[in-house]
Design a protein that fits this description.
Length: about 375
Protein backbone atom coordinates (compact mmCIF):
# COMPACT_ATOMS: atom_id res chain seq x y z
CA UNK A 1 0.00 0.00 0.00
CA UNK A 2 1.28 3.48 -0.79
CA UNK A 3 -0.02 6.99 -1.24
CA UNK A 4 -0.46 8.44 -4.71
CA UNK A 5 -1.92 11.66 -3.37
CA UNK A 6 -3.12 12.57 0.14
CA UNK A 7 -6.37 10.58 -0.23
CA UNK A 8 -5.59 8.15 -3.02
CA UNK A 9 -3.83 4.87 -2.26
CA UNK A 10 -2.31 2.15 -4.40
CA UNK A 11 -3.46 -1.26 -3.10
CA UNK A 12 -2.46 -3.52 -6.00
CA UNK A 13 -0.27 -6.62 -6.05
CA UNK A 14 2.68 -8.06 -7.98
CA UNK A 15 2.47 -11.52 -9.52
CA UNK A 16 5.73 -13.38 -10.07
CA UNK A 17 4.15 -16.85 -10.16
CA UNK A 18 2.19 -16.45 -13.36
CA UNK A 19 3.41 -18.53 -16.32
CA UNK A 20 1.32 -17.02 -19.13
CA UNK A 21 -0.68 -13.81 -18.80
CA UNK A 22 -4.16 -14.14 -20.29
CA UNK A 23 -3.23 -17.73 -21.10
CA UNK A 24 -0.73 -16.80 -23.83
CA UNK A 25 1.77 -14.01 -23.09
CA UNK A 26 5.09 -14.74 -21.42
CA UNK A 27 5.81 -12.16 -18.73
CA UNK A 28 9.48 -12.57 -17.72
CA UNK A 29 9.17 -9.79 -15.14
CA UNK A 30 5.78 -10.86 -13.83
CA UNK A 31 2.61 -8.84 -13.84
CA UNK A 32 0.99 -6.19 -11.66
CA UNK A 33 -2.74 -6.04 -10.95
CA UNK A 34 -3.39 -2.50 -9.82
CA UNK A 35 -6.21 -1.41 -7.56
CA UNK A 36 -6.83 1.90 -5.81
CA UNK A 37 -8.63 3.32 -2.80
CA UNK A 38 -9.90 6.90 -2.50
CA UNK A 39 -10.55 7.91 1.11
CA UNK A 40 -12.87 10.91 1.30
CA UNK A 41 -16.20 11.51 3.11
CA UNK A 42 -17.20 8.48 1.09
CA UNK A 43 -14.66 5.78 0.39
CA UNK A 44 -14.28 4.15 -3.03
CA UNK A 45 -12.24 1.15 -4.12
CA UNK A 46 -11.36 1.02 -7.80
CA UNK A 47 -11.26 -2.52 -9.17
CA UNK A 48 -10.07 -5.72 -7.49
CA UNK A 49 -7.18 -8.03 -8.43
CA UNK A 50 -6.48 -11.56 -9.70
CA UNK A 51 -7.94 -14.52 -7.81
CA UNK A 52 -4.55 -15.69 -6.50
CA UNK A 53 -4.06 -12.55 -4.40
CA UNK A 54 -7.29 -12.28 -2.40
CA UNK A 55 -5.88 -12.06 1.11
CA UNK A 56 -2.89 -9.87 0.20
CA UNK A 57 -5.20 -7.45 -1.61
CA UNK A 58 -7.82 -7.41 1.16
CA UNK A 59 -5.04 -6.62 3.64
CA UNK A 60 -3.80 -3.78 1.45
CA UNK A 61 -7.34 -2.42 1.23
CA UNK A 62 -7.80 -2.70 5.00
CA UNK A 63 -4.58 -0.82 5.60
CA UNK A 64 -5.65 2.01 3.30
CA UNK A 65 -9.09 2.17 4.89
CA UNK A 66 -7.53 2.62 8.37
CA UNK A 67 -10.71 1.53 10.13
CA UNK A 68 -13.20 3.08 7.68
CA UNK A 69 -15.78 1.11 5.77
CA UNK A 70 -15.81 1.35 1.98
CA UNK A 71 -18.94 2.80 0.36
CA UNK A 72 -18.29 1.95 -3.28
CA UNK A 73 -16.51 -0.61 -5.42
CA UNK A 74 -16.03 0.91 -8.85
CA UNK A 75 -15.76 -1.82 -11.47
CA UNK A 76 -14.06 -0.42 -14.54
CA UNK A 77 -13.32 -3.75 -16.22
CA UNK A 78 -14.72 -7.24 -15.76
CA UNK A 79 -11.80 -9.30 -17.04
CA UNK A 80 -10.95 -11.66 -14.17
CA UNK A 81 -7.46 -10.22 -13.59
CA UNK A 82 -9.39 -7.25 -12.14
CA UNK A 83 -12.79 -8.61 -11.20
CA UNK A 84 -12.01 -11.94 -9.54
CA UNK A 85 -12.45 -10.59 -6.01
CA UNK A 86 -15.73 -8.70 -6.40
CA UNK A 87 -17.71 -11.28 -4.43
CA UNK A 88 -14.96 -11.67 -1.82
CA UNK A 89 -15.09 -7.91 -1.24
CA UNK A 90 -18.89 -7.92 -1.01
CA UNK A 91 -18.67 -10.74 1.55
CA UNK A 92 -16.16 -8.69 3.57
CA UNK A 93 -18.16 -5.43 3.32
CA UNK A 94 -21.82 -6.41 2.67
CA UNK A 95 -23.05 -2.81 2.55
CA UNK A 96 -20.71 -1.77 -0.23
CA UNK A 97 -22.36 -0.46 -3.39
CA UNK A 98 -21.01 -1.81 -6.66
CA UNK A 99 -20.67 0.92 -9.31
CA UNK A 100 -20.79 -0.21 -12.94
CA UNK A 101 -22.73 0.12 -16.16
CA UNK A 102 -25.42 -2.13 -17.60
CA UNK A 103 -22.80 -4.33 -19.32
CA UNK A 104 -20.78 -4.59 -16.10
CA UNK A 105 -23.74 -5.98 -14.21
CA UNK A 106 -24.53 -8.47 -16.98
CA UNK A 107 -20.97 -9.74 -16.77
CA UNK A 108 -21.03 -9.95 -12.98
CA UNK A 109 -24.05 -12.23 -13.36
CA UNK A 110 -22.30 -14.27 -16.05
CA UNK A 111 -19.13 -14.74 -14.01
CA UNK A 112 -20.59 -15.16 -10.53
CA UNK A 113 -24.17 -16.36 -11.12
CA UNK A 114 -27.35 -14.50 -10.28
CA UNK A 115 -27.67 -15.73 -6.72
CA UNK A 116 -25.31 -13.14 -5.19
CA UNK A 117 -27.12 -10.19 -3.73
CA UNK A 118 -25.49 -6.81 -3.56
CA UNK A 119 -26.35 -3.16 -3.92
CA UNK A 120 -25.87 -1.73 -7.42
CA UNK A 121 -25.26 1.78 -8.63
CA UNK A 122 -25.65 1.76 -12.39
CA UNK A 123 -23.98 4.65 -14.20
CA UNK A 124 -24.26 5.99 -17.73
CA UNK A 125 -21.49 7.51 -19.82
CA UNK A 126 -20.24 10.78 -18.27
CA UNK A 127 -22.19 10.28 -15.03
CA UNK A 128 -20.46 11.62 -11.94
CA UNK A 129 -20.16 10.41 -8.39
CA UNK A 130 -19.19 12.70 -5.54
CA UNK A 131 -17.14 11.24 -2.72
CA UNK A 132 -16.93 14.58 -0.91
CA UNK A 133 -14.03 16.61 -2.20
CA UNK A 134 -13.31 14.09 -4.95
CA UNK A 135 -15.68 13.98 -7.89
CA UNK A 136 -15.44 11.06 -10.24
CA UNK A 137 -16.63 11.12 -13.85
CA UNK A 138 -17.12 7.78 -15.57
CA UNK A 139 -16.15 7.79 -19.23
CA UNK A 140 -17.12 4.71 -21.20
CA UNK A 141 -14.27 3.19 -23.22
CA UNK A 142 -15.88 0.20 -24.96
CA UNK A 143 -13.42 -2.35 -26.38
CA UNK A 144 -10.44 -0.88 -24.54
CA UNK A 145 -10.34 -3.74 -23.98
CA UNK A 146 -13.82 -5.25 -23.38
CA UNK A 147 -17.25 -3.73 -24.09
CA UNK A 148 -18.07 -2.82 -20.48
CA UNK A 149 -14.83 -0.89 -19.85
CA UNK A 150 -15.07 2.58 -18.39
CA UNK A 151 -12.34 4.87 -17.10
CA UNK A 152 -12.76 7.25 -14.18
CA UNK A 153 -11.52 10.81 -13.84
CA UNK A 154 -10.99 12.41 -10.44
CA UNK A 155 -11.25 16.16 -10.97
CA UNK A 156 -9.74 17.05 -7.58
CA UNK A 157 -6.40 15.29 -7.96
CA UNK A 158 -6.63 15.26 -11.77
CA UNK A 159 -6.12 11.52 -11.90
CA UNK A 160 -7.27 9.40 -14.81
CA UNK A 161 -7.94 5.82 -13.69
CA UNK A 162 -7.44 4.39 -17.16
CA UNK A 163 -8.39 0.69 -16.84
CA UNK A 164 -6.24 -1.42 -19.24
CA UNK A 165 -5.17 1.64 -21.27
CA UNK A 166 -1.57 2.71 -20.61
CA UNK A 167 -0.89 -0.66 -18.99
CA UNK A 168 2.12 -2.88 -19.55
CA UNK A 169 3.49 -6.31 -18.76
CA UNK A 170 5.80 -6.53 -15.74
CA UNK A 171 5.45 -6.36 -11.98
CA UNK A 172 6.05 -3.04 -10.26
CA UNK A 173 8.99 -4.25 -8.16
CA UNK A 174 11.07 -4.73 -11.33
CA UNK A 175 12.66 -1.74 -12.97
CA UNK A 176 12.37 -1.88 -16.75
CA UNK A 177 11.77 0.32 -19.78
CA UNK A 178 8.10 1.31 -20.11
CA UNK A 179 7.72 1.45 -23.89
CA UNK A 180 9.05 -2.02 -24.69
CA UNK A 181 6.63 -3.99 -22.54
CA UNK A 182 3.79 -1.46 -22.95
CA UNK A 183 4.04 -1.84 -26.74
CA UNK A 184 4.06 -5.64 -26.56
CA UNK A 185 1.06 -5.47 -24.22
CA UNK A 186 -0.77 -2.93 -26.40
CA UNK A 187 -0.40 -4.80 -29.70
CA UNK A 188 -1.03 -8.17 -28.08
CA UNK A 189 -4.10 -7.24 -26.13
CA UNK A 190 -5.68 -4.02 -27.39
CA UNK A 191 -4.11 -3.76 -30.88
CA UNK A 192 -7.26 -4.72 -32.78
CA UNK A 193 -9.16 -1.81 -31.25
CA UNK A 194 -7.19 1.18 -32.52
CA UNK A 195 -10.33 3.13 -33.45
CA UNK A 196 -11.75 2.70 -29.95
CA UNK A 197 -8.45 3.75 -28.35
CA UNK A 198 -8.45 6.84 -30.58
CA UNK A 199 -11.94 7.69 -29.31
CA UNK A 200 -10.76 7.37 -25.73
CA UNK A 201 -7.71 9.55 -26.42
CA UNK A 202 -9.98 12.27 -27.80
CA UNK A 203 -12.08 12.19 -24.63
CA UNK A 204 -8.95 12.25 -22.46
CA UNK A 205 -7.54 15.24 -24.40
CA UNK A 206 -10.42 17.33 -23.06
CA UNK A 207 -9.40 16.61 -19.45
CA UNK A 208 -6.68 18.13 -17.33
CA UNK A 209 -4.76 14.98 -16.40
CA UNK A 210 -1.77 15.07 -14.05
CA UNK A 211 -1.55 11.37 -13.21
CA UNK A 212 -2.58 8.19 -15.04
CA UNK A 213 -3.40 5.19 -12.86
CA UNK A 214 -3.74 2.11 -15.11
CA UNK A 215 -4.72 -1.40 -14.06
CA UNK A 216 -1.29 -2.77 -15.03
CA UNK A 217 2.14 -1.21 -14.97
CA UNK A 218 3.42 1.86 -13.19
CA UNK A 219 1.50 4.95 -12.20
CA UNK A 220 2.43 7.64 -14.71
CA UNK A 221 2.87 11.09 -13.23
CA UNK A 222 5.61 12.69 -15.31
CA UNK A 223 5.96 13.49 -18.98
CA UNK A 224 2.44 12.31 -19.78
CA UNK A 225 2.74 13.63 -23.31
CA UNK A 226 5.27 10.88 -24.04
CA UNK A 227 2.83 8.11 -23.10
CA UNK A 228 -0.16 9.71 -24.80
CA UNK A 229 1.91 10.22 -27.95
CA UNK A 230 2.94 6.54 -27.98
CA UNK A 231 -0.72 5.52 -27.60
CA UNK A 232 -1.68 7.88 -30.39
CA UNK A 233 0.92 6.38 -32.77
CA UNK A 234 0.02 2.82 -31.87
CA UNK A 235 -3.74 3.24 -32.08
CA UNK A 236 -3.59 5.15 -35.36
CA UNK A 237 -1.39 2.40 -36.87
CA UNK A 238 1.30 4.89 -37.74
CA UNK A 239 4.95 3.94 -38.13
CA UNK A 240 6.76 4.46 -34.84
CA UNK A 241 10.41 3.81 -35.83
CA UNK A 242 12.31 3.86 -39.10
CA UNK A 243 13.61 0.47 -40.14
CA UNK A 244 12.89 -2.87 -41.77
CA UNK A 245 11.69 -6.01 -40.04
CA UNK A 246 12.67 -9.31 -41.66
CA UNK A 247 10.46 -12.03 -40.20
CA UNK A 248 11.39 -15.52 -41.35
CA UNK A 249 10.87 -19.21 -40.85
CA UNK A 250 13.41 -21.71 -42.08
CA UNK A 251 13.45 -25.50 -41.94
CA UNK A 252 17.00 -26.36 -43.04
CA UNK A 253 18.54 -22.91 -43.09
CA UNK A 254 18.17 -22.03 -46.78
CA UNK A 255 15.40 -19.46 -46.28
CA UNK A 256 17.32 -18.06 -43.33
CA UNK A 257 20.38 -17.67 -45.55
CA UNK A 258 18.40 -15.56 -48.02
CA UNK A 259 16.95 -13.48 -45.17
CA UNK A 260 20.48 -12.95 -43.82
CA UNK A 261 21.72 -11.94 -47.27
CA UNK A 262 18.98 -9.29 -47.42
CA UNK A 263 19.77 -8.09 -43.89
CA UNK A 264 23.46 -7.67 -44.71
CA UNK A 265 22.63 -5.90 -47.95
CA UNK A 266 20.26 -3.48 -46.19
CA UNK A 267 22.87 -2.67 -43.54
CA UNK A 268 25.55 -2.21 -46.19
CA UNK A 269 23.27 0.24 -48.00
CA UNK A 270 22.89 2.26 -44.79
CA UNK A 271 19.51 1.06 -43.47
CA UNK A 272 19.19 2.54 -39.97
CA UNK A 273 17.70 -0.54 -38.35
CA UNK A 274 17.03 -4.12 -39.38
CA UNK A 275 15.04 -6.32 -37.01
CA UNK A 276 15.80 -9.95 -37.78
CA UNK A 277 13.25 -12.34 -36.32
CA UNK A 278 13.07 -16.14 -36.36
CA UNK A 279 9.34 -16.63 -35.89
CA UNK A 280 9.73 -20.21 -34.67
CA UNK A 281 12.07 -19.26 -31.84
CA UNK A 282 11.23 -15.74 -30.74
CA UNK A 283 8.26 -14.65 -28.67
CA UNK A 284 5.33 -14.21 -31.08
CA UNK A 285 4.00 -11.16 -29.18
CA UNK A 286 7.41 -9.50 -29.53
CA UNK A 287 7.34 -10.23 -33.27
CA UNK A 288 3.84 -8.77 -33.61
CA UNK A 289 4.94 -5.67 -31.70
CA UNK A 290 7.86 -5.16 -34.09
CA UNK A 291 5.61 -5.75 -37.08
CA UNK A 292 3.60 -2.72 -36.03
CA UNK A 293 6.57 -0.67 -34.86
CA UNK A 294 8.37 -0.45 -38.22
CA UNK A 295 7.02 0.65 -41.56
CA UNK A 296 8.61 -2.00 -43.75
CA UNK A 297 8.26 -5.75 -43.40
CA UNK A 298 9.79 -8.65 -45.31
CA UNK A 299 8.22 -12.07 -44.86
CA UNK A 300 10.54 -14.98 -45.74
CA UNK A 301 9.08 -18.43 -45.56
CA UNK A 302 8.79 -21.88 -47.05
CA UNK A 303 5.81 -23.36 -48.77
CA UNK A 304 4.37 -26.01 -46.48
CA UNK A 305 1.45 -28.38 -47.09
CA UNK A 306 0.49 -26.16 -50.02
CA UNK A 307 0.35 -23.16 -47.70
CA UNK A 308 3.06 -21.54 -45.56
CA UNK A 309 5.10 -22.64 -42.59
CA UNK A 310 2.97 -22.69 -39.37
CA UNK A 311 4.77 -19.92 -37.43
CA UNK A 312 4.54 -17.58 -40.43
CA UNK A 313 0.85 -18.37 -40.78
CA UNK A 314 0.30 -17.50 -37.12
CA UNK A 315 2.30 -14.29 -37.46
CA UNK A 316 0.40 -13.13 -40.55
CA UNK A 317 -2.89 -14.04 -38.82
CA UNK A 318 -1.94 -11.86 -35.84
CA UNK A 319 -1.19 -8.92 -38.15
CA UNK A 320 -4.40 -9.36 -40.14
CA UNK A 321 -6.69 -9.68 -37.14
CA UNK A 322 -5.23 -6.47 -35.68
CA UNK A 323 -5.89 -4.54 -38.90
CA UNK A 324 -2.31 -4.21 -40.15
CA UNK A 325 -2.18 -1.16 -42.41
CA UNK A 326 -0.05 1.72 -43.77
CA UNK A 327 2.95 -0.56 -44.36
CA UNK A 328 5.23 -1.82 -47.16
CA UNK A 329 5.62 -5.59 -47.44
CA UNK A 330 8.02 -7.77 -49.41
CA UNK A 331 8.04 -11.55 -49.77
CA UNK A 332 10.83 -14.10 -50.05
CA UNK A 333 9.33 -17.51 -50.76
CA UNK A 334 11.01 -20.87 -50.86
CA UNK A 335 9.57 -24.06 -52.30
CA UNK A 336 11.45 -27.06 -53.59
CA UNK A 337 8.88 -28.10 -56.19
CA UNK A 338 5.84 -25.75 -56.11
CA UNK A 339 6.49 -22.42 -54.35
CA UNK A 340 3.13 -21.13 -53.13
CA UNK A 341 4.05 -18.89 -50.20
CA UNK A 342 3.81 -15.51 -51.93
CA UNK A 343 0.40 -16.27 -53.39
CA UNK A 344 -0.83 -17.63 -50.07
CA UNK A 345 0.42 -14.65 -48.00
CA UNK A 346 -1.06 -12.14 -50.44
CA UNK A 347 -4.41 -13.92 -50.24
CA UNK A 348 -4.28 -13.85 -46.42
CA UNK A 349 -3.59 -10.11 -46.48
CA UNK A 350 -5.73 -9.06 -49.45
CA UNK A 351 -8.34 -7.22 -47.37
CA UNK A 352 -5.80 -5.02 -45.56
CA UNK A 353 -5.86 -1.35 -46.42
CA UNK A 354 -2.92 0.83 -47.52
CA UNK A 355 -0.45 -1.98 -48.06
CA UNK A 356 2.28 -1.39 -50.64
CA UNK A 357 3.70 -4.64 -51.98
CA UNK A 358 7.29 -4.58 -53.20
CA UNK A 359 7.52 -5.27 -56.93
CA UNK A 360 10.37 -7.67 -56.32
CA UNK A 361 9.20 -11.06 -55.05
CA UNK A 362 12.09 -13.44 -54.45
CA UNK A 363 11.34 -17.05 -55.30
CA UNK A 364 13.91 -19.61 -54.17
CA UNK A 365 13.78 -23.19 -55.30
CA UNK A 366 15.40 -25.05 -52.39
CA UNK A 367 18.60 -22.98 -52.04
CA UNK A 368 19.52 -19.43 -52.98
CA UNK A 369 21.28 -19.07 -56.37
CA UNK A 370 23.00 -16.17 -58.14
CA UNK A 371 19.73 -14.99 -59.70
CA UNK A 372 18.18 -14.87 -56.22
CA UNK A 373 21.09 -12.75 -54.99
CA UNK A 374 20.36 -10.25 -57.74
CA UNK A 375 16.68 -10.24 -56.81
CA UNK A 376 17.56 -9.67 -53.14
CA UNK A 377 19.83 -6.78 -54.15
CA UNK A 378 16.90 -5.22 -56.00
CA UNK A 379 14.61 -5.88 -53.03
CA UNK A 380 17.04 -4.09 -50.71
CA UNK A 381 17.18 -1.08 -53.04
CA UNK A 382 13.39 -1.00 -53.31
CA UNK A 383 13.05 -1.12 -49.52
CA UNK A 384 15.36 1.86 -49.09
CA UNK A 385 13.84 3.95 -51.87
FE1 LIG B 1 -6.12 -6.37 -17.54
FE2 LIG B 1 -8.36 -6.64 -20.06
O1 LIG B 1 -7.64 -7.03 -18.39
Amino acid sequence: MKNITKDVYYVGVNDHDIDLFEGQYIVPNGMAYNSYVIVDEKVAIIDTVDKNFTSQWLNNVKEALAGKTPDYLIVQHMEPDHSANIVNLINEYPNIQVVGNAKTFDMIKNFFGDSISFSKLEVKNNDTLSLGAHNLTFIFAPMVHWPEVMVSYDSLDKILFSADAFGKFGALDVDEDWACEARRYYFGIVGKYGAQVQMLLKKVAALDVKTICPLHGPILDKDLEYYVNKYDIWSSYNVESEGVMIAYTSVYGNTKKAAEYLKDKLLALGCAKVVFCDLAREDMAEAVEDGFRYGKLVLATTTYNGEIFPFMKTFVDHLVERGYTNRTIGIIENGSWAPMAAKYIKAMMEKLKNITWLDQVVTIKSAMNKENEKQLDLMAQELLK
